Amino acid sequence: MNAPSPATPPAQEPVEPKDRPARLAVGVVGAGRVGPALAASLQLAGHRPVAVSGVSDASLRRADAMLPGVPLVPPAEVLARAELVLLTVPDDVLPGLVEGLAETGAVRPGQLLVHTSGRYGAAVLDPARRAGALPLALHPAMTFTGTSVDVQRLAGCSFGVTAPEELRLAAEALVIEMGGEPEWIEEAARPLYHAGLALGANHLVTLVAQSMELLRTAGVSAPDRMLGPLLGAALDNALRSGDAALTGPVSRGDAGTVAAHVSELREHAPGMVAGYLAMARATADRALAHGLLKPELAEDLLVVLADGHDAADGRGHTDGPGASDGESDR
């Protein structure tokens, strides 16, 4: 006779975030769009937002909406209450804020001090580090709205991480708790890293807004609906294939079409001419370097771009600068 099988052990209840060990009291200095979202995501991981500071009415409303019940206090009081402090202020404000907090004795030994600036690494926190703080630079590569949707967007978001080597694991662990993906950035490379993000994301908004404006002027009733599929495909192709995804009149060497564009822009949107020419030159340089633009077609195109003039046959004036004078994309 077979022995009775042991009873199946009861399923373990999942551990609630609040019951996890080593949870930290979190404070936010600067209730802009970023700070409350990061604090809310840390709260989902079981940490406890305990204090937030803000100046404008909009920031105070934002903090109240995303961190309800968390008291609004001055920056020094935030540091007094928190073990993990998020410094989410504009880049140009950050150095002075850190120096002021350190000089006034607000920084405590062992306190985790995190800034979210893309421009700076951990060195900007040196005044606080000398006071005993543990400095971390965690920059989310994401655009923020100041609403709860930002917390959802942090899932899978890359963070530029810079910290002293002994704090690297702690920095990466915090990013993972917020749902992000840590990407290590060396201290000296932070400005270049940030320039790359700004070039891609910030300038993209300007380009799309200008494109929509031109389409409206041309009579398109729903430029957003027209551009959506096109831009989505272009972005996907660019991320997959880089320069090989280049299409359009510049990469084909259609000097006449480019000249016509310049002529129309001069008439209907003169403020966009300089930007169009600069981006077209950059595109031509990259298309040439990757063999997409044939050299025999590039000369007429680059003359049009260098002169910024249009001609009936699509060629620039021959007395203008030659193809070798086309500006690079550096």
From TrEMBL:
Residue ranges of every copy of the DUF2520 domain listed in the record: 157-283
Name of the protein in its database record: DUF2520 domain-containing protein
Domain Putative oxidoreductase/dehydrogenase Rossmann-like: 18-140
UniProt source species: Streptomyces marianii
InterPro entries the record matches: 6-PGluconate_DH-like_C_sf (IPR008927), DUF2520 (IPR018931), NAD(P)-bd_dom_sf (IPR036291), OxRdtase/DH_put_Rossmann_dom (IPR019665), TM1727-like_C_sf (IPR037108)
Pfam families in the record: DUF2520, Rossmann-like
Biased composition (Pro residues): 1-12
Origin superkingdom: Bacteria
Span list, region Disordered: 1-21, 310-330
